[in-house]
Amino acid sequence: METKEMVNIDGMMIPIEGEKNLLEMIRKADIELPTFCYHSHLSTYGACRLCICDIEGMGIQATCSIKPSAGMVVKTNTAEVRQIRKVNLELLLANHDISCPSCARSNNCKLQDLTRRLGVTKVRFKKTDKIAPIDNHSWSIIHDPNKCVLCGDCVRACKEMQAVGAIDFVNRGAKTIVGPAFNKSLNDVECVYCGQCVSVCPVGALVPKPETEEVWKAIHNPEKYVVAQLAPAVRVALGEGFGMEAGTISTGQIVAALKRMGFDQVYDTSFAADLTVVEEATEFIKRKLKNENLPQFTSCCPSWVKFAEQYYPELLPNLSTCKSPQQMFGSVAREVLPKLLNVKPENLVIVSIMPCTAKKFEAKREEFIHGGMAEVDHVLSTEGLGRMIHETGLQFNKLKPESFDLPLGFKTGAGVIFGNTGGVSEAVLRFAYEKITGETLIDTDLKMTRGLEGIRTIEMKLGSLQLRLGIAHTLSNARKVCDSIIAGEEHYDLIEIMACPGGCIAGGGQPVSFDPDFRKKRMQGLYNADKQLELHKSQDNPYVKELYQMALGEIGGHKAHELLHTHYHGRKRITDQVITIRNTQEPKIQLYVCVGTNCYMRGAQDLLKKMSQYVADNKLSDIVGFEGQEDMVDVKATFCFERCDRGPVLRVNEKVLEHATFEKAKALLDSEIKRIGLAQPVR
Amino acid sequence: MITEPNKNLRQFQQVIEIIERNNHDRARLIPILQQIQDAYRFLPPQVLTYVATALDMPVAEVYGVATFYAHFSLEAKGKYVVKVCDGTACHVKGSSKLLDALYKKLRLNPEKHTTDDMMFTIEAVSCLGACGLAPVMVVNEKVYGEVNSKRCDEIINAIVELESQPETVNE
Predict the structure, then answer these.
(1) CATH code assigned to B80-164
(2) Alpha-carbon distance A632 to nearest alpha carbon in chain B (angstroms)
């Protein structure tokens, strides 16, 4: 028998089997050591000091930061260790805004749980912090620094997992807070609203923005006709708020609850996902045959879309122009429901229930609001709907299942697996296979698309077409894929990107789970839900076919384009940042040079340097109309005109110059000087 | 007031040079910020955004570093930064009286550090490492030891006098 290296944990001999740290070994021994700042998928931080144990010869150490080695003797529960843990927890509580009964995370809060578990009944320390302002300006996330315990989980999730870094630690020592740069709101920085910070927050410092009151108001208004659309991932997670295991499918109960709450019709976003598959796969086949704008990126994930708009404007033509299922649903519902249900368009209220915080932002994008009417009025997160059901007192577990309403409630399994990473690819392949080969796909389980690997590559042959598909989840993986494509190191035909690890099932609007396997369980739940349906291919959905006949016309046709497709634009990462480079008293001309990342990469710095020197060197006194007046030109550096794909961009008063060079910029400035100079009264 | 339209330009050109001199290296963020602070006498937020862009890193991270160190200031400081030591030795020798006298003379207080004409900034610091000369005061780079209220008055008056002389036009 092979002899294994062992660690002695409270007298038990535990074998070392490749664990990263001692904490994982202790947990393997079925001892649930308390932690705030430890997440196995993020880097180890060692901030909360709750996982401390007594290690022989090393003293008291944070076990998350210690590598296990043979012969270690660890005591997890000595008098000293218990005492230190309690004091640490007490100190965390000292400056915590203890408003548990009214907190959105009450009953699902690690701080609350550990306080009870460790038996801390009194906080001896006085509060010293002033009350900090709460940031509720974004559509997606509320940030309350008063509840923050500075574990840094959100900072690491944003930086490491999502490669965004919208928030970081600010200040030092007792004054430390977590937040965006310059105390700005999340609404004014590069936050993509994925809500992974919400998912890892152990307390209620970061929570999804509730829209529950607006929805109640609509439900209670007798004039309004309120319809719901339910996203796939919600059905395998909502039950967790009612004591169910992660991954339990509770679709029937959710529909029943929504009807009892007063929703007039309950539909399925998976129907719109089927529609998305048909449109997006058709778009893809078209592009592939023409070899145009490849690779095609999926566009269902609003965090990924915002990420691409901010960081990869040059890839925007590669994004599928298809709207996300949420928006397709809204668009189609606005088109067909008023007539079908005999409701005035202005009285139709569309509420979506999403596993996602970014969907709240997506619904408010200007592209999706037409003449003051949004395609989707309100977006509830899964946990938000959970709270609404709790409020009604409905016994969720005892509800008799009900079914979705037709026609927009009918879906195939392809529309359901959308919530998993790889799900969109699988659904698209189920369509593309039949479309390209003309054969019937018998076994619809395309297992090569499944799994939790961060970046997956699939090569396959459909008929005569050789395809290379990429699947990436988390935006740090998206970044790797994008960089490798831009560098020409990788090539793909189709790339599916989801911002959240595991896909929508682990979205920022889902109930926060402390179950280490919650992703796998929810994913399996969606695959099971697919199995429980009779149809698995979007093209087989009879109501999708009917919709095309009734309202949309041809797949990818004119009307379909009008209702189901959209466009994207370069987007600034931070608001209101202008550097005054040359400041005169009475400027007649304002020269702005964009120094945002994309323009910067295209030589904006050099352009700015040359232009400002040109302005400084050339006194305007030589020009007709400017005699005796010097220095009429102000120069400013600004961050982003949102024309990133056409950089460097420069603006002279109201005239914008794209693809600017020094020569072109000089000519534009000279012509503007001349124009204004001639307009000056002759002295 | 004499306008100086190219002052910001010179400062900004320095920023560009500083970043280039440091090879756009993220690991050199702190020296870059120190040098920029030397150019502007503080760290303007917009310039921090520019640094983040130039080093290809999140602004929040740059802001985090800039707010971590007491050495960095995100508020504009006066032309003359007066640091009054309030460490143990200086405190015992009456530095708080000195500070009060300065606040009174320049119409400042512990919340308002800089005069409206952007001439003086008063900072109470923990230790300047010259305890033998207590109480100690530093004006920009110049150290004054064994300062009393009268001496302090003279130092400030001398600066005011110097600044009120007509400036030679340097543009």
Answers:
(1) 3.40.30.10
(2) 10
